[in-house]
Amino acid sequence: MARTTRQRAAVAAVFDTLEGFHSAQEVHARLRTSGDGVGLSTVYRAVQALADDGELDSIRTDSGEALYRRCSTQHHHHLVCRTCGRTVEVAGPTVEAWADRIAGEHGFADISHTLEIVGTCADCRAAAAAS
Amino acid sequence: MARTTRQRAAVAAVFDTLEGFHSAQEVHARLRTSGDGVGLSTVYRAVQALADDGELDSIRTDSGEALYRRCSTQHHHHLVCRTCGRTVEVAGPTVEAWADRIAGEHGFADISHTLEIVGTCADCRAAAAAS
DNA sequence: GAGCGCATGAGAACCATTGTCAACTCACCG
DNA sequence: CGGTGAGTTGACAATGGTTCTCATGCGCTC
Q1: Residue B123 confidence (pLDDT)
Q2: Which residue stretches of B18-109 are H helix?
Q3: Which nucleotide, over all strands, has the C1' atom closest to the CA of B1?
Q4: CA distance A96 to chain B (A)
């Protein structure tokens, strides 16, 4: 199993050249545009296979879309403004350590986690106050 | 806007009697069973309106389903086994404090956050090792 | 009580994702 | 190097949660 085919390599290559999170749909569109035709089903399968192998991390958007990113990129979390959508990336060594500890206490291993903080940024609070 | 109708009250009532996270579909089924017929569209609208008003928190399942819960219930996070799906609820005062601090540093207020820890539980590791 | 609008709900539309299945292709064997 | 078979592919259909549409209904205000 896990044969190395042109399509699978193409999908993996996309994540090598791209930073951050990307959807399966986006990968598919990107491959189509770049001339490497890869079927949509295949992109989904490849992406899931990569995620199973631990080469990709996955999260879900608020709209229910699945996003993937190369695992090795340094870990960070998102601080999102609920009004204007502005996003700040924050590192959280405290949280990493806490998650590992909690997971260990419950007998869990091979931990990964996702954390999103949602709030209202200073600008939007000012704008709201002015109205 | 935000009129007080029977349907909206019914949806809100469901979350008063239920602990934890529940999907819109589940709320709809529950209302249907209990005799209060409320349209699916209306459940979605009510749930979103409640979320907008800050009365409900929402997260997404791995399968893309949206889950909601009453905000006031004590805050906790989920530790999920990626193999068998077993879920442990964990409290995280450390994380709460950290999130508040980080958000404050970036000028964000009215913070809420979601945190999911995914790993492999002891049982599933043992099962995997046996195979 | 009358009238204005927002709210409702049945069904259709939407869209990301998953399933299907015949054709294909890679890896290995001889 | 050609054959062989099992894993892969991809066009298309199906699924399922969510959103949209629009005619009808009901809460509110006057």
Answers
A1: 84
A2: 24-33, 40-52, 93-105
A3: C6
A4: 10
Question: Residue A65's closest CA among A27, A17, A92?
Answer: A27
- Measured between alpha carbons, how far is B118 from B80 in angstroms, rounded to an integer? 5
C-alpha A59/C-alpha B60 separation (Å) is: 9
Give the strand order in the sheet containing A66-70.
A22-23, A66-70, A56-60
Q: Is A67 on the interface with B (CB under 8 A)?
A: no
pLDDT means over runs of 10, chain A (131 residues)? 78 86 91 85 92 83 84 72 75 84 89 81 78 56
CA dihedral of A43, A44, A49, A52, whole degrees rounded to 10: 140
pLDDT score for B113: 81
CA–C1' A63–C5 (A) = 30
Distance (Å, whole) CA A53 – CA A49: 6
Chain B partners of A94 at a C-beta cutoff of 8 Å? 94-95, 98
How do residues B21-44 score in pLDDT, each as one tens digit? 889 999 999 888 887 778 899 999
DSSP classification of residue A75: P
Strand partners, A100: none
Task: Name residues whose C-beta falls within 8 Å of residue B61's C-beta, 6 or more positions apart in sequence.
Answer: A60, B23, B67
Residue B1 has pLDDT above 60, yes or no: no
Contacts of A79 in chain B (CB under 8 A): 102-103, 106, 108
Listed by range, residues with Cβ under 7 angstroms from strand C are A 3-6, 23-25, 40-41, 44, 48, 64-66; B 1-3, 5, 7-8, 37-42, 45-46, 64
Tens digit of pLDDT for each residue in B76-126? 787 877 777 677 878 778 888 888 898 899 999 888 787 878 788 888 888
